[in-house]
From TrEMBL:
Pfam families: ABC2_membrane_4
Transmembrane segments: 20-38, 50-69, 90-123, 135-156, 168-192, 212-232
Name of the protein this chain belongs to: Bacitracin ABC transporter permease
Keywords: Membrane, Transmembrane, Transmembrane helix
Domain of life of the source: Bacteria
Keyword Repressor carried by entry: no
Length: 238
């Protein structure tokens, strides 16, 4: 357990000092600012949540994941990392924990920024129940997109870099935007978060899509996570 936390500490220092993290956060805040405003707080915060469901999750979280796993190959530090007295599984888990932590920080930062903008713009109808409901929905959308990050980690490991996984994230975004509104949207993992959000306003259930949709997200995460751990266990044989 100590080696895991040590690995997570090192990975956190790598990411927290990376211009990729801060550049991505500034870009997401900029886009949030452009899309701010609305007739009331539900619309104002809903615009921000929609950005997460449709764009921020796939590209923002995907880019962060691609960098965390791909930089070891791009910077030629992977051999040094594999030589450490730390299990390969612990290294993958540590990277995953850091990604989850910083994605959560980015999500809460953007939510807080959106609240501040709403106050500055004088959006009417603010209540704690609206804030709580919107925050809960946003965190659930963020969790869905974190499940979609495991294939990105696997591609970054296989391709030994971050260009291929970033291209994958961009491609899945295009697929989600074009195929999401079709009948196949509920079975495409990348369009499920946006569909979940669009149906949440009119459905009584907290999970308005069919069970198969959420099972697809979990299955994709399992495949990506298992594949990434397996790849890293055999990385020095590649």
């Amino acid at each position: 357990m100590k080696s895991l936390w040590n690995a997570a500490y090192v990975e956190n220092r790598k990411l927290s000092r990376s211009p990729v993290l801060w550049g991505m956060l500034v870009f997401l805040l900029f886009v949030t600012g452009i899309r701010s405003g609305g007739a009331d707080w539900n619309e104002h915060l809903g615009n921000m949540t929609f950005l997460f469901a449709s764009v921020f999750g796939l590209m923002g979280f995907g880019t962060m994941t691609a960098w965390v796993f791909g930089r070891e190959y791009a910077d030629r530090t992977v051999k040094d990392l594999l030589a450490l007295p730390v299990s390969r599984t612990a290294i993958v888990i540590a990277k995953g924990l850091v990604i989850i932590g910083w994605c959560l920080v980015a999500t809460l930062t953007i939510f807080g920024f959106s609240l501040l903008l709403g106050l500055l713009l004088g959006v009417p109808g603010l209540s704690w129940s609206i804030v709580a409901d919107q925050l809960g929905g946003l965190l659930l959308i963020a969790a869905f997109h974190l499940l979609l990050c495991s294939p990105v980690a696997l591609l970054a490991s296989i391709s030994r870099g971050y260009l291929v996984p970033i291209a994958y994230a961009f491609t899945t975004l295009m697929v989600a935007l074009t195929a999401g509104p079709t009948a196949f949207g509920a079975y495409l993992p990348w369009s499920i978060p946006a569909l979940h959000l669009s149906m949440s306003d009119t459905a009584a259930s907290a999970f308005p899509l069919g069970t198969a949709s959420y099972a697809i997200l979990i299955l994709l995460f399992g495949i990506g996570a298992a594949g990434t751990v397996s790849w890293w266990k055999r990385a020095d044989q590649r």
